[in-house]
Design goal:
Length: 542
């Protein structure tokens, strides 16, 4: 009986490491682009990348959030997105490399990421069930792109041998007598893989760009541009001469809209068209009310000059700004609804699901002049400051008083509803604390010896500033010159002119409000209801 010689073992199919990594990255890009395109139709926050980012913000512990705000300021969300991108790219590369021989590891990784994105979308209060189409499209596109590219990469045929040439070192696995002779011919399969990879990259780019274009054409920007001029029946008094010491280094009295501070939980600015917006007032009221944008705009509009402050503002921090806000009295809307006895808070909800609780006694106080604002510094609210409408309640930190993109107001009790930041341990009432800040000189700045201007701002909203003092080193307190007061709801500038010899100097400031209270020197952080302490800087004269 004859026995046949054993045939040489066929090499195992596998991708090279660079090709495997590329497959993983391209599948990720295709998945994100497909999800973003679908999200443009079902809600931009359903984009898997953004949905996961928003969930990350919601799940981040308060100390970490505070660190991010204090360290990165207005760029905290950009840092988050960049960090997510790096992590996702690393996961894609690892998934691709683990899938050199089989697409199974990469497929499992894509499915897991798709499930995470689906959970993130499902948990968003601002998204409906149809928004799950975005992570579904993302998962499908990722799996299809990954497996297709993997197949292309592992089927690079060599006609002379009829074998599958798959990696950069596959040739070494062939018997010496069957190895190709001379200069190898270009492998058609390699070209096919590169063409396929290029096609996926282009397709992902088109899908991502298409999503952006669709979102832009249906965005709030065009709606805002069509609003036109908002005219108050009662304009804010003109800002008087001497209201700031901007030439000496303080801010201008009114903060330009682009420079107005922004601290919120929105990873992407909500896109709400005025024609789609409505405000519902319900809960412990005699009658439920609903208002459209035109309903609010057609009411008598008032304009008020108000300084807003964020509770995340550390001593000497930048999160304070002033603007002319235009809108309607919030109290009037609540009176029309009829607030019932026992009500304790106005629980406001943004279109992106953010919530805040404002003491009802404050919103109903006619002297507080709380507003539903639709305009800011002579124009409709900017998109990132709440267009179409937001709350503005003087004297309270923004996390309980300044809900942007507001769409729902529920009159209720503290026990019945717990807002976003109260769930995270922040204070309930949140009155703004009397504080002051040095704006010039800057910390560690070097100035010519001689005449030096020390200037800054002070604030005690709803009370007003009576006095600001500075102290050099351990010397006596010296009273500063105050700017012209505009109203009790706004900041007040101050300055002191000194003759200083060469040397190192340390200066501190403190403010006294109209009630006679002088801010404490006790240094306390922002949690749970605002920072305290004297702002102190060091500088040098030569």
């Amino acid at each position: 009986m004859e026995t046949s010689a054993e045939s040489p073992a066929r090499p195992v199919a596998r991708l090279s490491i660079p090709a495997a990594a590329l497959v993983g990255v391209l599948a990720l890009v295709a998945a994100l682009a497909a999800g973003h395109l679908v999200a443009a139709f079902v809600g931009i926050n359903a984009s898997p990348y953004l949905a996961v980012g928003n969930s990350a913000i919601d799940l981040t512990p308060t100390p970490v959030k505070d660190f991010a705000v204090q360290t990165f300021g207005i760029y905290d969300k950009l840092v988050l997105l960049a960090g997510m991108a790096v992590v996702m790219l690393l996961v894609a590369v690892v998934a691709g490399v683990l899938s050199r021989r089989s697409p199974l590891p990469g497929t499992v990784a894509i499915v897991l990421l798709g499930v995470v994105a689906g959970i993130a979308v499902f948990s968003r209060p601002d998204l409906s069930a149809v928004a799950l189409l975005a992570p579904a499209a993302s998962l499908l596109a990722g799996v299809v792109a990954f497996r297709w590219l993997h197949t292309l990469g592992t089927r690079r045929s060599t006609p002379a041998l009829g074998l599958t040439e798959l990696g950069e070192d596959d040739e070494s696995e062939l018997p010496a007598e069957r190895a190709p002779r001379g200069k190898p011919e270009p492998v058609p399969g390699r070209r096919g893989f590169l063409l396929g990879a290029g096609g996926v990259a282009v397709g992902a780019g088109v899908a991502g760009l298409g999503g952006q274009l669709v979102a832009r054409t249906t965005s709030a920007a065009s709606s805002r541009a069509e609003i036109g001029r908002l005219v108050p029946v009662r304009a804010a008094p003109p800002i008087p001469p001497g209201a700031d010491f901007a030439r000496a280094g303080t801010p201008t009295f009114l903060t330009p809209n682009p420079a107005f501070y922004r601290v919120d939980t929105a990873l992407v600015v909500p896109q709400v068209r005025a024609e789609d917006w409505s405000l519902r007032i319900h809960g412990m009221v005699d009658r439920e009310l609903s208002f459209s944008y035109d309903d609010i705009r057609d009411r008598p509009l008032v304009e008020r000059t108000i300084t807003m402050t964020c509770v995340s503002n550390e001593v000497g921090g930048p999160y304070i700004s002033t603007a002319n806000f235009l809108g309607v009295d919030l109290r009037h809307l609540l009176v029309e609804a009829g607030v019932r006895p026992g009500a304790e808070q106005l629980y406001s909800t943004s279109v992106d699901g953010y919530t805040a609780g404002t003491p009802i006694v404050t919103t109903m106080d006619p002297d507080r002049e709380a507003m539903l604002a639709i305009g800011m510094n002579g124009e409709p609210l900017p998109l990132d400051h709440g267009f179409p409408a937001r709350l503005v309640v003087p004297g309270l930190y923004g996390y309980v008083s300044a809900t942007k993109w507001v769409t729902d107001l529920e009159v209720t009790t503290w026990a019945a509803r717990k807002s976003y930041w109260l769930q995270r341990g922040w204070g309930q009432q949140a009155p703004i604390k009397t504080q002051s800040r040095i704006d010039t000189p800057k910390g560690f700045q070097t100035l010519p010896a001689g005449r030096v201007v020390i200037a800054g701002i002070a604030w005690a909203q709803t009370t007003g500033i009576t006095k600001v003092e500075i102290r050099l080193g351990t010397g006596p307190w010296q009273e500063a010159l105050l700017s012209t007061e505009v109203n009790e709801d706004t900041w007040r500038m101050w300055r002191v002119d000194l003759d200083l010899p060469p040397g190192n100097h340390q200066v501190a400031c403190r403010a006294t409000d109209d009630s006679g209270y002088t801010q404490t020197s006790d240094r306390v952080g922002t949690v749970p209801d605002g920072a305290t302490g004297w702002h102190t800087i060091s500088f040098t004269t030569r």
